[in-house]
Amino acid sequence: MNKIILIILCLLIFIIGMSFVSAKEDTHFEIEKDSSGYSSIITLKDSNNNPVPKVKFSIKITKPNGSTRTLSDKKLNSTGQNIFFLGSTKGNYVITVEFKGNSNYNPTKLTKTITVTSGKGGNSALDYIENGNYGLNQKKDDYIDDNYWYEEIYDNPYNFDGEGY
After folding, report:
1. pLDDT of residue 126
2. Which of 20, 76, 100, 162 has the most CB atoms less than 10 A away?
3. What's the CATH code of the domain at 58?
4. In whole angstroms, what is the distance from residue 39 CA to residue 144 CA?
């Protein structure tokens, strides 16, 4: 009888121990308007409000004219953030971010509307630069350099100067 109780007790301790090992932590997104007014800052945080760095997530941005831009495999930086250029057209931009979870964290999703209140017209990184905004915000400038330099500026047939790859 004592052996059966001891075996049941060991199994119970094993099951409780496994539940602590396999428990995933909850996460949540925060979306804020960048100080420039043209971008959003996305941050993923854990249940203790600490940033979750270097995980992949997807983002969908719906522009005021109804068109959408979907980026499925973006990665947060070492501080658990990423910045996204919304556009320079006035209006409401609806941002949906989704983290599918991993072995340490539970999935999460958030939709938020950011209003761009100033702008001179266009809705691209090229317009942002041509409207004289380049150099005013280092985070955004770095983001544009990393993500749009060849894609929207040099690959545009109207302004291609032959120096792109």
Report:
1. 60
2. 76
3. 2.60.40.3080
4. 11
